[in-house]
Amino acid sequence: MKFPEWIIEEVKRNKKDLADIPASKTKKDLKDYRLHTVCDEALCPNRGDCFKNGEATFLILGDRCTRACAFCAVNKNTPQPPDAGEPDRIAELVKKWGLKYVVFTSPTRDDLPDGGAGHYAETIKAIKKLNPGVKTEPLIPDFKGDIKALETALKAGPDVLAHNIEMVERLYPEARKGADYGRSLALLSNCKKINPAQAVKSGIMLGLGESKEEIKATIKDLKAAGCDLLNLGQYLPPGERHYPVSRYYTPAEFMELKDYALSLGFKGVLSGPLVRSSYKAAELYKKAGKRDKQSGQDKEGGKEAVE
Questions:
Q1: Which of 37, 92, 134, 156 lies deepest, with the highest CB count within 10 Å?
Q2: Direct distance between the N- and C-terminal alpha carbons of the chain, in angstroms, rounded to an integer
Q3: Spatial contact of 284 and 267, defined as CB atoms under 8 Å apart
Q4: Which class would CATH give 5-294?
């Protein structure tokens, strides 16, 4: 299936950005600090745009995943033990780049007793210790539904806790083996039970064969689970051997779904063909904060906030 024009043009612009000096410098720093980014490992189409601006989503706990999701390009070989020095190196690079908002994620590490939760916590702590005031957004795996592991990550004080539902429930058995739709929803819901004030975020890929009714049902499920922030993006197969794309949603359809999510009460929604989990994460966080503030003002004035 051929890419539509609106995706081709955006990808071309991003590829051009990868040749820019700031992008090259970003990649050199990552090599010098022995760090990975999900931008490269997952072949994200926004690499050029993000690297040009000195932004990257760090990939902790190595670059090898213990699961084999059909849509993902991350290495599936046997993982290496966690690198105890990694959290401090990330914190140092955050300081060098002068970042104010840091997103980091990992492959799923079912081989580790806590699923890597302790390493997530140490990364949050290291970043905040060396960079006071910096916001952190860990994008966590499901930790096999382990509440204690989730508590470990939350106790470190992330500003946003993200976990992607990825797709509609019907597609899980074929496209996301090893994961469980209900378990992911429970993890998101448990975030709010552990800390009602915690900002929670999730994301959905579109174009794997779902219907719009299924997308809306999934958005409803996420809202019911306590999600505050939502990303909606087009699925783009990283290679011919990966799960095939079923259709390409138009920018107008992404806008329609964004409006639907906002109507349910989400505090912030990013929706578009090349939107990915961490794309413009700081911008989305700020928008949600403004919406919270506006909502508070309107309630004081005796009326509800309307976007």
A1: 37
A2: 37
A3: no
A4: alpha beta
